[in-house]
Design goal:
Layout: H1 17-37, H2 41-48, H3 52-80, H4 82-102, H5 106-134, H6 137-151, H7 153-168, H8 173-192, H9 205-217, H10 220-250, H11 255-283, H12 285-309, H13 314-339, H14 347-371, H15 378-400
Helix pairs in contact: 1-5, 1-6, 1-7, 1-8, 2-3, 3-4, 3-5, 3-14, 4-5, 4-8, 5-6, 5-14, 6-11, 6-13, 7-11, 10-13, 10-14, 10-15, 11-12, 11-13, 12-13, 12-15, 14-15
């Protein structure tokens, strides 16, 4: 039996490297496409001669598309299997990349980003379900930490790569590269990833597929963990939506500078993942969630304090964000493991419903903050702090139950 196929029962053994690599590339394709695209936003706005609010829709609406897509991937994967669902998502991702590359208008570009994002989120949703298929709650948190840590490598280099591509060629090149990477991932998944789920084909129609949502939506423990994850994602999305504007327009930095400095943020997030993988099982899922939530509040509070007290600089934004990313990297794997462990028999649906809430809240906050371009970095700092406080409040409620 392949080491990426489902064993007879859950295990507490260390996750195999082959599984980690496969799930990392599946999970990383969506964030990679988003990160390589973000430095191009100012160029896209100028190319199509549209307002900042319109250009921002290429980011925020793609986030909504990811949210809606997560609702379908979980139940479909529970019914038909993890492997065919991931493959279908990757094909959709490639179609969206092609549309973005040839988009003649901003409308077509936004539509292409919606399709690309809806396809790319498949791996993000189903990697959590696959890990929960194979491991118990505490070991699942450790395995998710390794997957997240490995897949951060792609988003880490994506902004820098995007900035270099834009400065060297032009903004459409970022979508060409995103499509080429998608082809490689599709081939790797087709060859290497086996089925880990037990498809429940007996449930009838859409009612059977989505019936688990009703059960989960009335579970207070699930809702608390999902809300914590939603505000956690909102912190990150708020930064992604507004940081390029602050760096390029407010501070006058080139896109390459943003991409290179974002490597530091990704490195901090990866360090947090490493901490979670090494110590998360010893400390426990709930404690890791609480510690990470407190650290996120500390980091976002420091950002606002530095911006108010000192002259604006890239470090006023990025140095506190490194602390925030470290805390989130430590908390996020445990939060993901917790949300799919409330009802392990509905892991796919739980991952999808939680992902829907995360992407909806995060994308809404990103659109609000990204559209408030006051010529200052204060909107991004305030938006991140508000999201961090919501994250901590939800964490306290979830872990006290």
């Amino acid at each position: 039996m392949s080491d990426v196929e489902r064993p007879a029962a859950e295990t507490t053994a260390s996750p195999p490297l082959r599984l980690i690599v496969i799930l990392a590339v599946c999970t990383g394709i969506g964030p990679f496409a988003m990160q390589i695209f973000l430095p191009a936003l100012p160029s896209i706005q100028a190319h199509y001669a549209v307002s900042p609010v319109t250009a921002q829709l290429a980011f925020s609406l793609s986030g909504i598309a990811m949210a809606v897509a997560t609702l379908f991937y979980g139940p479909v994967a529970d019914r038909y299997g993890r492997r065919p669902t991931i493959l279908a998502g990757l094909v959709l991702y490639l179609l969206g990349s092609a549309l973005c590359t040839i988009a003649p208008t901003i409308t077509w570009l936004i539509f292409g980003r919606i399709v690309q994002a809806a396809g790319g989120v498949a791996g993000m949703v189903l990697s959590r379900a696959i890990i929960r298929d194979l491991f118990d709650r505490e070991q699942a948190a450790s395995a998710i930490s390794y997957v997240t840590m490995a897949m951060v490598v792609a988003p880490m280099i994506a902004p820098a790569l995007g900035g270099i591509l834009i400065d060297t060629f032009e903004w459409r090149s970022v979508f060409v590269v995103a499509g080429l990477v998608g082809i490689i991932v599709l081939v790797a998944v087709w060859i290497e990833l086996g089925e880990t789920g037990r498809p429940a084909r007996g449930a009838g129609g859409l009612a059977g597929m989505f019936g688990g949502f009703r059960v989960l939506a009335t579970d207070a423990q699930f809702l608390a963990y999902a809300t914590q994850g939603a505000f956690s994602m909102s912190v990150f999305f708020t930064f992604l939506a507004a940081a390029p504007y602050v760096m390029v327009t407010v501070l006058g930095m080139p896109p390459t500078r943003y991409g290179l400095m974002f490597v530091l943020v990704s490195g901090s997030f990866m360090t947090g993942n490493f901490i979670s993988a090494r110590f998360g099982r010893r400390l426990g899922v709930d404690r890791m969630i609480l510690v990470g939530s407190v650290g996120t509040v500390v980091g976002t509070s420091l950002s606002l304090l530095l911006l108010v007290a000192l002259p604006w600089s890239p470090w006023s934004l990025f140095a506190p964000m490194m602390i925030t990313a470290l805390a989130q990297g430590a908390a996020m794997p445990s939060g993901q493991a917790a949300v799919v462990s409330v009802r392990p028999d509905m892991a796919g649906s739980a991952s999808g419903l939680a992902g829907f809430g995360q992407m909806t809240v995060a994308s809404t906050m990103a659109q609000i903050v990204g559209s408030i371009q006051t010529g200052t970095p204060y909107p991004v700092a305030l938006g991140m702090l508000a999201s961090a406080l919501g994250m901590l409040a939800a964490a306290v409620i979830a872990c006290r139950r």
